[in-house]
Amino acid sequence: MMTFVWAFIIGGLICVIGQIMMDIFKLTPAHTMSTLVVAGAVLGGLGWYDALVKFAGAGASTPISSFGNQLVKGALMEAETTGLIGVLTGIFDITSSGISAAIIFAFIAALVFKPKG
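Structure tokens predicted for Stage V sporulation protein AE:
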């Protein structure tokens, strides 16, 4: 039961940080998302984000900051096996399914809903 509580708290805190960035610091949603991705990448590079995911589960693996962590994780894993070129290919290897899903769902939404404009 505590796993769900911690997932809710950690995921909520990440979202609160994003909301504070937009409301108080007046950052655009694009700047906020980019900052959270970079923060996730930095924490992943330091090895701290995996510990957060282990502790909070979906509360840390669902927000956008997890995408930055996945980018770094993929680049580091592939760099170990194939060298410097792995830094580039590893990013696409580990994140391709999420990116593909986002493109497919956006396409379906565009077919189903009428855009404003």
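The radius of gyration is 16 Å.
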